[in-house]
Design goal:
Strand content of chain A: 25-35%
Number of domains of chain A: 1
Number of helices of chain B: 6
Number of strands of chain B: 5
Structural class of chain A: alpha/beta
Strand order of the largest sheet of chain B: 1-2-3-5-4
Distance between the termini of chain A: 38 Å
Helix content of chain B: 40-55%
Radius of gyration of chain A: 15 Å
CATH class of chain B: Alpha Beta
Strand content of chain B: 15-25%
CATH architecture of chain B: 2-Layer Sandwich
Oligomer: heterodimer
CATH topology of chain B: Heat Shock Protein 90
Order of helices and strands of chain A: HHEEEEEHEHEHE
Largest sheet of chain A: 6 strands, mixed
CATH architecture of chain A: 2-Layer Sandwich
Structural class of chain B: alpha+beta
CATH superfamily of chain B: Histidine kinase-like ATPase, C-terminal domain
Distance between the termini of chain B: 52 Å
CATH topology of chain A: Transcription Regulator spoIIAA
Number of domains of chain B: 1
CATH class of chain A: Alpha Beta
Helix content of chain A: 25-40%
């Protein structure tokens, strides 16, 4: 078992105290020295979204926290996770951590929880986001849905 | 000590005089510098969206490689955290060219050269396969990089990776990699 999964599972320990007190997990996206995606994990509905750009000082920690939330959510009784992923840039360090997060979701699915993952790619797809989504799908073992959206014109990407 | 401090710089400037330089930098590749140069390159995305974005993605991977893995660190910094290296980005009417260089240990150089040579023999689908294979291997918290940066660079560029190296001494070599990205026709 790799370290990422191990860290997520070790978190079991603290969970018993938190039962039924799952909270939403929200991070506002930012672009400063590093780029953080927006994260919105809804504890009431299981509807989750990660979007924007991902170039992080500690990508491993960032996505591990999200994976831990998923794991806690299921243990607290949540039975469906619907995750929308809508990236327009991520570096390779982030992609590696993202893959680990998706593998945690796959394990959660194997445990009997309904897991839906939607991967959004823009039209036009200048950054080849669809290709990245397909690569994740092949690697993580989840049946990720590929969904195209129209890219709105904006001053800044 | 008698030599003028600016002599080398004049020579260097002259050799680059006939290129349209977007960025030229040598020094520590710290996070603030990466952000500054990254923003500068990103603005190019306005001129030619697709190639501009590719240029940005390539820059980020090569610059992070220097940050994390350059064998040379800034000696005067109290915490020798950031790798030192150099980077030139210039444009021609038809393409962007990005070249980076940094010190590597000789035994590491051989691995990088082998990896680049393998990358250059692969078509797009095989590169994706190689990326998936590397990405799926063991992750450790202390290894910050994805180990797939060079593969991603090859996926984003339009020509084989051009690599070169010059041995400095028994321990170190100076390694350069050059990447071309074609601009889309107007």
């Amino acid at each position: 078992m790799n370290n990422f999964l191990q860290d997520v599972l070790l978190n079991d320990f603290t969970l018993s105290k938190q039962m039924n007190t799952m909270e939403d997990y929200i991070i506002a996206g930012s672009r400063d020295i590093y780029f953080s995606p927006s994260v919105n994990l809804n504890a009431a509905t299981g509807k989750c979204c990660i979007s924007g750009e991902s170039y992080l000082e500690e990508p491993y920690e960032f996505y591990k926290k999200i994976a831990v939330w998923f794991s806690d959510y299921v243990k607290a009784g949540g039975n469906t996770i619907a995750l929308d992923l809508k990236f327009n840039y991520f570096n390779t360090s982030s992609s590696r951590a993202l893959l680990e997060m998706l593998r945690v979701l796959r394990d959660i699915q194997h445990g009997g929880t309904e897991v839906i993952v939607n991967w959004y790619y823009p039209n036009p797809d200048d950054d080849e986001i669809l290709m990245e989504g397909e690569d994740f799908r092949e690697e993580c073992g989840l049946d990720i849905n590929m969904i195209e959206y129209e890219l709105e014109e904006s001053g800044d990407k | 000590m008698e030599e003028k401090k600016n002599k080398g710089l004049i020579d260097l400037y002259s050799t680059m005089n006939d290129q349209d330089i977007i960025v030229y930098y040598k020094g520590p590749f710290d996070d603030v510098i990466l952000a500054e140069i990254g923003n500068k390159i990103r603005k190019k995305a306005f001129d030619s969206p697709k190639s501009g974005k590719r240029l940005f993605a390539v820059f980020m991977e090569l610059a992070q490689n220097i940050s994390l893995y350059s064998y040379e660190k800034n000696r005067l910094e109290s915490v020798g955290k950031w790798g030192v290296g150099t980077l030139v980005v210039y444009e021609t009417p038809t393409s962007y060219v990005l070249t980076s260089g940094n010190m590597v240990k000789n035994d590491v150089l051989e691995q990088i050269q082998k990896k680049c040579e393998e990358i250059n023999t692969l078509d797009r689908e095989s590169l994706r396969e190689m990326k998936r294979r590397y990405r799926s291997s063991e992750i450790t918290p202390d290894h910050k990089g994805g180990n797939i940066g060079l593969i991603q660079v090859a996926l984003k560029s339009d020509a084989p990776l051009e690599i070169d190296a010059k041995q400095i001494d028994d321990e170190r070599s100076f390694f350069t990699i050059s990447v071309s990205i074609f601009k889309e026709p107007n």
